[in-house]
Amino acid sequence: MPQPLQDFFNVLFIYPITNVLIACYQLLAQLGIPYALGFAIILLTIIIRLLVYPLASAQIKSTKEMQAMSPKIAALREKYKNDKKRQQEEMMKLYKEHNMNPAAGCLPILIQIPIFISLYNVLTTIVAVNTPAALNKINGILYSDQLRIAKLWDPTFFGIPLSATPSSLWSTMPIITILIPLITVVLQFILSKMMVPANQPATPAKKDDFQAAFQTQSLYIFPLFIGFFSFSLPVGLSLYWNTFSIFGILQQYLLAGWGGLVVDGKLSLWKKI
Q: What's CA 258's distance to the chain center, in Å?
């Protein structure tokens, strides 16, 4: 990234998020709460999740509306499968009739991307602070002298080093090495499953339906993918991601129900979509 653009990105995203995180830490530390840094990461995650709640809600609602229209869209694709131009025209009429914008669900995601990138950069930097020089660098971007940190913080969360990766803890904390990626996979799978409509066909309508096949595979592959990364990234990032997933599950439930996680009143973890 060019330096002027990097500086702009820092001022707009990195510095504000860093200041909010440090403010959370200072508040918790002054209240005498142990493992203040870990709880500050959780509190920051809650704050960010509340800030992007309207965007995420718009995305969930748009996705739900598109899923409800999927049978009609599939019918149009089948009816005009040999006339792509007419197919597109009829689909646009359908969107207009239902006052739908097929790109509406993408905008909230695009807006959230720089926030997530910034969070990753901030948390990666913060959990790695273990020297006075690194701490002074953080103090240098704080907006107020009252936020300045006088001494290094406790870098652990219930005895787990936030800067360590689960893979590096195998010899000392083998249970943590397994538990953190496992929790990450389970939470991400539950959230992904809830995002699938309960009445969606068990298998793609057509073998050549790439989109449906991709959705089926990604339901299982993506959580494993995230779990693998949590195995090799600092524990502090997993703490953020899992807190974010929990709030995502709550939001998905409030706005769209259990989705594909519960079908006909029964838990449906392994049923293909």
A: 18
The pLDDT tens digits of the residues spanning 88-136 come to 888 888 888 877 776 665 666 677 788 888 888 999 899 989 899 999 9
Asked if 108 and 60 touch (Cβ cutoff 8 Å), the reply is no
- Residues 267 and 232: their CA atoms lie apart, in Å, by 31
The full set of domain ranges for the chain reads 1-70+101-159, 164-273
Structure tokens at 118: 């910034």
Q: How far apart are CA 177 and CA 196, in angstroms?
A: 30
Cα-flanking dihedrals φ and ψ of residue 270, to 5°? -110, -5
**What is the reported pTM?**
0.82
* Amino acid at the residue 240: Y
Maximal CA-CA distance, the chain: 70
Residue tagged 């974010």 (tokens): 244
Judging by DSSP bridges, how do beta strands 266-267 and 160-161 pair with one another? unpaired
